[in-house]
Amino acid sequence: MRPRFRPFDEHRPINIHRRNLPHWEQPGATYFLTFRLGDSLPAGLLRELQIQRAAWLRVHQLDDRCSLNDLDPILCKEYHRRFTAKEHRWLDEGHGRCLLRQPDLRTHVTDALLHFDDDRYLLDEFVVMPNHVHALVLPLGNHSRSDITASWKKFAARQINAALRESGTLWQAETYDHVVRDIEQLRSYRQYIAANPVKARLRTDDYTLGKGTGIETES
Q: What is the residue range of 115's domain?
């Protein structure tokens, strides 16, 4: 029987590690993932966001290592409005070369996303935008969220660099990931992914919107 969506459970084991951002992993959890090209956000904008985030955490007496899953729903909503939404808006503005606007290069990303679908993970809704990717994924077995995203980025980078006859780093090293808390949030992320190209005012040949095997829910 195919695994179904399971809400985040604060009483079950959680693996927490961090680089610039905290990353939570829980067996059986579903994740909303965003990864972006290395030139997609100017350094100045990122510094501005980091300064604002640090000030907001101090005001609310929160540790800078905290995760969104640490926050109560009201603070979590405010955080998304102030920081996550702003970063996604900047991504939608189309900074950088936007290599994934080219259909032939974008295909390498969709191929990577779909390659191990229904084997190492269940892939739900996803969208490949000109300079970033959003996806919902449920890892299977012993395959971790971090290993899955690393394999996507490695495969796509190798293919894209070969097509461009270039070398070097393609993606921003760190992936934004969020454990999906409940069925309502899963539906909200699905709606966000579907609406993202329209919100960014893209032409139909500027992006790829798709769905893998899908994540089943109880209702």
A: 15-39+97-211
Domain assignment of residue 51, yes or no: no
Is 116 a domain residue?
yes
Total count of domains within the chain: 1
**The model's pTM:** 0.81
3-state helix, strand, coil in the chain (%, to 5): 45, 20, 35
| Residue whose entry in the numeric block shows the structure tokens 């005012």 | 201
Rounded Cα distance between 158 and 162, Å, is 6
Phi and psi at 109, nearest 5°, equal -75, -45
pLDDT in tens, 66-100: 555 566 677 777 776 777 777 788 888 889 999 99
Determine, yes or no, domain membership for 71.
no
Identify which of 156, 148, 173, 146 has the alpha carbon closest to the alpha carbon of residue 112: 156
pLDDT tens column, 166-189 = 998 999 988 888 889 899 999 999
What CA–CA distance (Å, rounded) separates 155 from 112? 6
3-state secondary structure 85-139: HHHHHHHHCCCCCCHHHCHHHHHHHHHHHHHCECCCEEEEEEEECCCEEEEEEEE
The span from the CA of 33 to the CA of 113, in Å, is 12
